[in-house]
Design goal:
With 87 residues, this protein is an all-beta fold. It contains no helices and 9 strands.
Length: 87
């Protein structure tokens, strides 16, 4: 995440040494929802959904009819609340 002049946070696309693109996010310390980049044992990068229990929206990975994966906002309380999203 990067911060613009208005104080809003947004996602930024970054490139690592291998040329792979991934989304990077940081916490702004306000208790708001955010995406966190984590690594598993295989060194793969994942985005993790984090929520503060306020009933706010979070992101879930879903598949459409074409087989493409995309992110969708869903209400807190869904069984997918702790799902990991592959980058």
């Amino acid at each position: 995440c990067v911060q613009d002049g208005s104080g809003e946070l947004f996602l930024r696309c970054v490139q690592d040494g291998s040329g792979e693109l991934f989304l990077q996010c940081v916490q702004d310390g306000s208790g708001e929802l955010f995406l966190q980049c984590v690594q598993d044992g295989s060194e793969e990068l994942f985005l993790r959904c984090v929520q503060d229990g306020s009933g706010e929206l979070f992101l879930r990975c879903v598949q459409d009819g074409s087989g493409e994966l995309f992110l969708r906002c869903v209400q807190d309380g869904s069984p997918d609340a702790k799902r990991f999203l592959a980058v």
